[in-house]
Predict the structure.
Amino acid sequence: MDRNDMVLLIGSLAICLMAAVIGTLPIVLGDGIAWQDMLNKPFFAPPDWLFGPAWTVLFLLMAVALYLIWKQWPARYARIGVGIFGIQITLNVLWNYVFFGGHLIFFGLVEITVLLLAIIATIAAFYRVDVRAAVLMVPYLLWVCFATVLNAGIWLLNR
């Protein structure tokens, strides 16, 4: 790995780590955890301790995927992929502010649905550049699909 690759990898990790940290602020600094504990949840809701490790792995996979695409810069689809990646990671962070920060369960459901579409678009753009990067995004897509169903279940149980 040359110096340029190291810079790209560190940059990719920094972006994803920064998103993870910013996204957790309404949970750890606000009343997100206490509020969520008061909600009725579907029977399939995982234990709270699972979310931290799951998201850590997902953000690391996203960082490697972003790195693989950035290596292909300035190819057209690499630029498109990085742009769409930026949109989806912003939506990822925003969901925490809508759901945990604003206590807006329905709008969280709307937002996470848009996030799902952005992840699908990211995977499609990544696929045109590097199949490995697209595959690395699939666990994230699956987890957000599950999170969407969970968000819907919470909304239905707490209307």
